[in-house]
Amino acid sequence: MTQAMTAVLQPLPMRRNLVDLPSVHRVSHRRGETVPLPAGVLWRIEGGLLRAITWDERRGVVSTLGLFGAGDLVGEPLAGTDPYELECLTDTTLSYVPPILWSGVIESLFQHVRQTEELLAMARIVSMRERVKCLLYWLGDRFGRITNEGLEISLRLTHQHLADLLGTSRVTVTRVLSEFQRLEAVSCNHRRLVLKARLEEL
Fold first, then answer.
1. Model-level pTM greater than 0.85?
2. What single string gives the DSSP state of each residue in 20-41?
3. Residue 4 pLDDT greater than 80, yes or no
4. Kind and range of the H or E element at 147?
5. Can you tell me the distance from the alpha carbon of 201 to that of 184, in angstroms, rounded to the nearest whole number?
């Protein structure tokens, strides 16, 4: 059983290291900032986009463990790796979730695990075109909306962010996306990515 699962399943009176935040109900962070992770504290995302990352200090390789948006729970009890960091990809607002309201933590924990498993599965796809394609549909399923043009994803994700999600290089992601644009399978401008029906045929 992981430390995160153990912390979640402990009876409330036995929890330790909980930060007393009676006056802190909501906090805001700017894009690019790191969210502090006090022991035993959970935050609910009210608005914005966060990515959870870890890294190999010897090789200097950053890996993205998941992307989280409005309604998701994040915090130290749900961190399953060390090191672990939450980076704001947009301006973000968080609200403190007191332990007495932790009834939804188990589902959030499963969601974190599912995201990591899905990203690992994508990273094992041999064809880079298929790998990027799967990631685009994964982002569309979580954060997209249907428009007359196609499936629109309005996220402030750079090509480097996408590369970190897939365990590849920024140059490779740029090359594949450029190919998709040339084939009119996607359109991209001003942080707005639209997946066309043509993408399914590739």
1. no
2. --TT--EEEE-TTPBPP--TT-
3. no
4. none
5. 11
